[in-house]
Specification:
By secondary structure, the protein is of the alpha+beta class. It has one helix and nine strands; from the N terminus they run H-E-E-E-E-E-E-E-E-E. The structure holds 2-acetamido-2-deoxy-beta-D-glucopyranose (NAG) (3 copies). One 2-acetamido-2-deoxy-beta-D-glucopyranose (NAG) binds next to strand 3 and strand 6.
Length: 129
């Protein structure tokens, strides 16, 4: 009983602190998830190559709150393969090295907020099935 109350008190106090933090914002922060321009339909990459992933950076917010990273995606699944991370989302491009994959159609996801993915394109890997 006392333990439960103590936990509840801690929880409420944490909530109160969170509320206070958000109640006094220093600046407006925006999540940003711009559309990917390259790679796109018809793009062919080979494992081991380096390419610039590019995105439309024409309307960047002044402050970006989300952490930038790029994942590889196949079908409807985001793969736990990080192609790039912690780059500047305003730059509109970042170099990635194409990983070893089983040859197939992939897309890349730029995070971004909830993530914005490219069109499907082909990666030629060292293994064909
Ligand atoms: C990526 O873009 C930058 C800037 O345009 C360029 O210097 C670099 O060579 C490009 N990298 C590749 C792999 O094309
Ligand atoms: C990739 O997609 C294209 C177009 O849908 C298809 O013709 C091709 O067979 C696919 N390639 C592989 C390796 O899955
Ligand atoms: C990609 O970004 C554009 C512009 O921000 C947005 O309208 C679109 O819904 C996004 N697409 C996806 C798949 O998240």
């Amino acid at each position: 009983m006392m333990f439960t109350k103590a936990v509840a008190a801690l929880f409420l106090s944490a909530l109160a602190q969170t509320g206070m933090t958000y109640a006094a914002p220093l600046e407006k922060r925006d999540v940003y998830s711009p559309p990917v321009l390259y790679p796109h339909t018809g793009t062919v990459w080979y494992s081991g190559q380096t390419h610039n992933v590019t995105w439309d950076n024409s309307n960047p917010p002044t402050s970006i709150s989300n952490r930038a990273f790029i994942l590889l995606r196949q079908g409807n699944s985001e793969l736990p393969v990080v192609l790039a991370h912690d780059f500047d989302l305003r730059a509109g491009r970042v170099e990635v090295e194409v990983p070893d994959v089983i040859t197939g159609n992939f897309s890349i996801v730029l995070f971004g907020d909830s993530g914005n993915w490219s069109e499907d394109f082909l990666i030629n890997g060292p293994i064909d099935f």
